Amino acid sequence: MESEQQKFHDKGRRDFVKQTSMLAGGLLAMPILSKANYFSGSSDVIKIALIGCGGRGTGAATQALSTKENVQLVAMADAFPDRLNDSYNNIKEALGDKASRVNVPEKNKFTGFDAYKQAIALADVVILTTPPGFRPIHFEEAIRQNKHVFMEKPVATDPAGIKKVLEAAALAKSKKLNVVVGLQRRYQNSYRELYKRAQDGMVGDILSMQVWWNQGALWVKPRKPEYTEMEYQMRNWYYFNWLCGDHIVEQHIHNIDVGNWFKNATPVTAGGMGGRAVRTGKEYGEIFDHHFVEYRYADGVVMNAQCRHWKDAPSKVDEEIVGTKGRIYCDKAQIVDHKGKVLYQFDKKKENNPYQTEHDELFAAIAKGEYKFADAQRGAEATLSAIIGRLATYSGQLINWNTALNSGLDLQPKTYAFDAQPPVMPDASGNYAYAKPGITKYFS
After folding, report:
1. What would the pLDDT profile of 353-372 be if each residue is shown by its tens digit?
2. Could you give the dihedral angle defined by the CA atoms of residues 391, 385, 431 and 437, in that order, rounded to the nearest 10 degrees?
3. Burial category of 39 from C-beta neighbours within 10 Å (exposed 0-12, middle 13-18, buried 19 and up)
4. Which InterPro entries match (predicted)?
């Protein structure tokens, strides 16, 4: 029998889906389009624009240009000219004999905070790979301009951004625009085979889940005298929540999403703990270096999620799912019964590069004039799951999914400009305030 908690959680999700569907309902649903409708030119060339020219953007563009389809990079946008130019050169070098697919004249290289609008206008497909704080406004604009989208995870850093993405996701569906989100485990052969067998009942009913993203330290870029505070934070975007969301959102979302995927649900509540035990200097902004979250689903199933950035500590990036009949070890690509007998072992020789597969499948669908991918809502749900985990570890409080979703909590600056003040500022010693569990409050 469906629990009252499940009914409440599902009603909250249904109410929001209904609201966003009404928003999209003002437009007539468009039919499946022909190739001619999909592409901005008369040829079969699929034109792409890259928005966000860091390492992940460079990689994503290279993967898009490595597909079998006739794809050309025609526009690029980034806040910083140096990053754009480095990305342009790196993409051409990575493509080798396919470098001619990079067709970006100087007039199509746009920089600054509004550069994305100009680049989007020139493309059929948009790749969104800026720091995730910008993702909601970029996604919203891409859908407004009727573009297919590949966007990296996470899709927002705060609940207000999640609402914006969900509204744009509903609009994308009404326009039949393909959207793929870079939660690449869903495009990985081993995970797909494990999921298929879980759905077929090989492990029985799920009882609990454990997910990890534990690793060492990451990069830091030194402050330069000529930087404004806005530029400094954007160049060190990982350490500021309005841009990154903390590493539980930016990285651990992958593992949290696997839990949601195999459970076919999203968590109702999150409670946990975290802090700054090792990474404590001013150069690390306001984020924590460790999080441990207990996610509870409506039927009482618990997913324990841990992530940390500690130098010289053991690394572990994996998921383990326990059912009534057995358990799944995702990294091993293995299912065993409770006595240790192997029930299924994926042949690792059949593993794919899921980062490439995301683009292979997306561009194959677009080239055929198919509407096949609607990842945005799922990406938003995975992101909100990670966000409520951050809110729980920061505050020390139990955070409810629906309360967070409807809170209006917005971390973004009022103005996007290099001379504008970011949402968080350093004190006289250059230190940034960070959350204190038990003291920091988000909701009454």
Report:
1. 999 999 999 999 999 999 99
2. 30
3. buried
4. Gfo/Idh/MocA-like_OxRdtase_N (IPR000683), Gfo/Idh/MocA_oxidrdct_glycsds (IPR050463), GFO_IDH_MocA-like_dom (IPR055170), NAD(P)-bd_dom_sf (IPR036291)
pLDDT at 10: 57
Residues 172, 136 share a domain: yes
Q: Which domain holds residue 121?
A: 46-185
Backbone dihedral angles phi then psi of residue 77, each to the nearest 5 degrees: -145, 140
The single-letter code of the amino acid at 31 is P
Q: What are phi and psi of 228, to 5 degrees?
A: -75, 170
* 8 A C-beta contact, residue 254 and residue 185: yes
- CB half-sphere exposure, 118, CA atoms < 13 A: 14
Determine the residue type at 71: V
Q: What is the pTM for the complete model shown?
A: 0.92
CATH of residue 111's domain is 3.40.50.720
Rounded CA separation 77/125 (Å): 14
The CA distances from residue 400 to 254, 261, 329, 443, in Å, are 21, 20, 29, 10
User: Residue 27 is encoded by which pair of tokens?
Assistant: 């437009």
